[in-house]
TrEMBL record:
Name of the coding gene: Adipoq
Stretch list, region Disordered: 27-104
InterPro entries: C1q_dom, Collagen, Collagen/C1q_domain, Tumour_necrosis_fac-like_dom
Organism: Smutsornis africanus (Double-banded courser)
Limits of the C1q domain: 107-243
Protein name stated in the entry: ADIPO protein
Location of this chain's protein in the cell: Secreted
The entry's keywords: Collagen, Hydroxylation, Secreted, Signal
Signal sequence segment: 1-24
Keyword Metal-binding part of the UniProt annotation: no
Gene Ontology terms: cellular component: collagen trimer; extracellular region
Basic and acidic residues compositional bias, start-end: 54-79
Pfam families: C1q (PF00386), Collagen (PF01391)
The keyword Flavoprotein appears for this protein: no
Amino acid sequence: MRGSAGFLLCSLLLLAPRCTEVAAQDVQPDPKTPCANWMGGAPGYPGHNGLPGRDGKDGKDGAKGEKGEEGLQGHKGDQGETGAPGREGPRGFPGYPGQKGEKGEGAFVHRSAFSVGLKERAPHPNVPIRFSKIFYNEQSHYDASTGKFLCSIPGTYYFAYHLTVYLTDVKVSLYKKDKAVIFTYDQFQTNNVDQASGSVLLHLSSGDEVWLQVYGEGDNNGVYADNINDSTFMGFLLYPDPE
């Protein structure tokens, strides 16, 4: 028995190194595990990120999507600055005539005028000459009974007289408010008929009077009139004062 045991122990001792070598060849421990073997080191740190790769090729356009719902209306924006005028467009065709309008009220026109002549011969001096032959006196601003023109419309007036001179000299004056404004003198020539005349522009106020009369005493009242010779006096409003 002691001999058999010794033989068996020797056999085991001879086979042990070979089994160990075969086991070492068949099983290799993972070097990343902490217990890989007694010589394994500590795990390493993670490496740096690599560079980005190149852009890939564009893909194909997808199918057109459906139309979305209309959004809410936004707030009205501020008014912009006025732009430059555009070019003038082409001229259009003439329009049709419009309907005739209603007759309007005419503007009021101030009127004042007279034209008179002498009937009597040799009027008296220093009193208004009464021209009683009426050519025009529609507004009745001239009074034939006094020989005076009475201003009813303030404004600028024109007065004129044309007198036939016969038998003696004539010296007449045109008066405004008891004051002589202009004078006319004509020296009579024997066996002849003369003419004396004068004219003037006057501004009159309402109530002013204008007339013609022989001026001075003596032989200066040769104003004459008959059926073929007239002596006339006239006046009219040029324009009224502004209201």
